[in-house]
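Protocol step 4 of 6: structure prediction from sequence.
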Amino acid sequence: MKQEAVSENRSIRPVTQDEVNFYHENGYVIVRGMFDVEEMRLVQAVCQSDPNLDASLKKVVDANGNIWGASVWTGLNDSLVSAVTRTARMVEAVESLVGERNCYHMYSKIVQKYPHDESIVHWHQAFPSWYDDGVPFPDKATDCSIAVTENTKENGCLQVIEKSHLLGRIDRVEVGNTVQCDPQHIERALHDLKIIDCEMDAGDIVFFHPNMVHGSIENTTDKTRILMHGHYNAMSNRPFAEGLEAHTCLPLEKLPDSAIKDGIYTMGFDPNAKDWNWYNRDPEEYLEATA
């Protein structure tokens, strides 16, 4: 992998203290204009035409039998999408939100909702799976979703339940071939908490706490909605177990924020990136068993 001289790299879009405060109070924050339109067009091109993306696609079945997919990778490599995850603006934002300077990238995924896609991503949290891996503290990790295209409620933008990070780890139940938060807990929480539609322009990003309850509904439009999700953790918060695929535990080295436009990458999506299936059962086997 290329090693850059990164000591002098600084973010061109640092998060503000007000944004950090909003994140800790509400469990999420939308940062506008983290990336520009030109940068997102390059990522869009990868999503639309790179065959390696399809090769890493993992399928998830919702409660109604509809299938959605995510192209998942762990670790760092010389691809464009990996470069996005370690630009100075991303690394410094993560450091500001988790309160530590030494963080690592766990894994990322690209999720596309195609026109009139009826699949639903049920309410879930990220942290319970990491806790099972041995990650002790939720506050020392963070999630994010970059709007690669415009994200609206109509095309299935990310939704979060405001302040739901204060609920702690919610029990999980099986749904389709994966898991969701126990619906009884969600129903009770929604008596007091509200759903936020994270509507964003291409290049905006939403950061959210690992215990934040999030999901998305169907895409009712004629356009594809694309999100790029990233998951980060502090080195001091790495799991006690070793050799886990989602925890390479290599400290992030910042790339310059110009890396995307300067082409400091050799491919769009790395075909040799580590990946794994996070769902409970193979989707085809699940559908056959429930037919």
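Step 5 (inspection) to follow. The two ends are 46 Å apart (CA to CA).
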